[in-house]
Amino acid sequence: MKSICITLTTLIFATIAPTLSAAELTLTAPLDYQVVQRSSPGKGLVRFAGELSEEVAATDTTIEAKLVGENQESGWLRAGGSISGRKLSGTVEAPAGGWWKLEVRVTRGGKEVAHGSVAHVGIGEVFVVAGQSNSANYGQEKQSTQSGRVAAFDGTKWQLANDPQPGAGGGGGSFMPPFADAVAGKENVPVGIIACGIGATSVREWLPKGATFPNPPTIEGRVQKLGSGEWMSKGDAYAMLVARMKSVGVQGFRAVLWHQGESDANQKDATRTLPGKLYREHLEKIIRESRRAIGWEAPWFVAKASYHVPGDEGSDDIRAAQASLWRDGIALEGPDSDALKGKLRERDGKGVHFSGEGLRVHGAKWAEKVLPWIDAQWTAPRKANDGTEWTTFEQLPECHSLGWVSANVQSKDTKSWNGVLDEAKWGTPSPQQAVTRNWDWKVSDDQWREAVKQKGEGQREEVRFDLWLPDDIGVARGIVVISGHGSGENLFRRADMRALAKELHLALFKFVGNPMQRGFWPRSLLFDRLKLLGKKRSHPELEHAPLFLYGHSNGTGFSAIFPSYAPERVWGFVSMRPGITFQVYQPGAAQVPGLVIFGEDDGFFARPSREENLAVVPTLRKNHAALWNIAVEPKAGHGPGEKTWPLVFSFLRHTFAARVPVNAGASQGPVKLNTLTLENGHLGQNWDSTKGGYQTLTTASFANFAGDKATASWFVNAAYAADWQAFQLHGEIAK
Fold this sequence. Notes:
31 strands, 24% helix, Rossmann fold, disordered N terminus, Immunoglobulin-like, 3 domains, eleven-stranded mixed beta sheet
């Protein structure tokens, strides 16, 4: 496939000599004016690729990307990617909008050694348009994009979407520019069009190669007669359609807009008219087969289209067939274009194609169907796992993130730390990597507000909130609140997590997005969202329900720190594979049951050393009588596996039973949680880093434990202690 290439001269440091050598970088993706389908209202994933004129060692290189708009820019974003010889490729999550100028750079040792850009890239909505002439360029008057934010792709290149649309038949006008302008105006994002329409085609001509039917269409060039007397599609139109759909990748467009039917309805030679029953069967086959071919369930909108001229203004049979696809959930409802008559048709209403005014009205009718559906994709309730799931999105400023608060508000005093952690063992960190030992937060809301007033909110970024409630839950007794960072996304959707929530009458709530996912300030940010969601979902108790918190890696900045400033609301928390174990040291959360799970082979566990990371919980136990325990998963890395979750669920179940009163309800206000005591719990011998692997660790009631009671792991009861012991011995617990 041809591509628009941008050639750049860059300086690449030689790997074996201090001299500089020039290299040329040709960027092949994204293309100029390309529109990338967004994955949420506020962002999408941009894939980029390029080729260097000479091989470059990838050692110690970093790939970054930046998007620059007319009035804003993203700043340099760390991109996932690689350099292999002369090839460069990567991805970056970028804000919706555009046109953006995309800049990509490669650095080594903090110095830029390569830089390139693409002038126009959009993150927005992409549509495939297919069918016959009224889905192509046969309108009476050429249309052009009024917003300047609509581009078209012909399978080779992108360009502004002025008629005639590249990739479709005909040389006249189309409904696509006015339709796409309406979408761009409503959604405030660029729109991409992949036009595939072919004039005068029957649905029979769009069938996959080898599909048969009893009677031929009026035009026979794309079909052939078999010796049996049946007819067969040659499959050319279908192959072209699938190739165009594949060209933008899985989930690379929003929907197919199908406008076709005139060449199957009321043909002059009645033997070539297609019965509605067969029309339905053929179009269903095209939809289902194309979905299999592209590897995902692409939505299709199907219009009612069978109009010819005055006096032949539609076929009830074909229209009913088209509507049956909506009714049976195979396709979505497109506009009734047969209703567009008179001056909206060419030649003063005498023709089958649309006039200039008709094209604009036709585009508006498509937008009326598509736009509400797009909005529903983000927020419509979804049935899942015997419950219902809702999603909302907000653009929140950077000042809410823990990193911003740590840098701009929190005291840098580290004197309060008296454990064995030694920051010197990290080497000499750069300013961007420096780690503060003291995460004992003493930040007031007023201090935070004053810092925001002085320094500004920072850039806004999308945060996604997901709520799941079991069917027939009645009043929710609690909420499992999950940072979506890392494994949190998976945990929220796990069927076994939802089964446990259903059993205990719990809601599940997840957030993901940099202003919140690694931890946030102030705490009201969470409570305000729970209050709003509770009101919307007729569950006002969500505002005051007890919480169980989960965070993975840097998501520990939420799950371990939040209980320190709202301990009265949290019945327990899990810190899964903390990215920085320093932040787990939270004296304010000491009386909230906590589980910290390390992976033995996790690189973060070894940084700066296992011994120092393992010291955090015992030190907090000793200094503050913390109700916490450590688990080290043998032979496991940074991500939890299938054997990890049963321990998490056991901890959740047993702490819920111990902390949340049986008859308590949050409908009238916060639930007063049961207070636990050290003496009523159990203790366990901590994992020995010098031995590693699977270990037999003794457990006993507090009174009978023979080891150091001040530093041993603390368990809520004997049942959870047994599960923890089995996990350390076998790497799993009995089901």
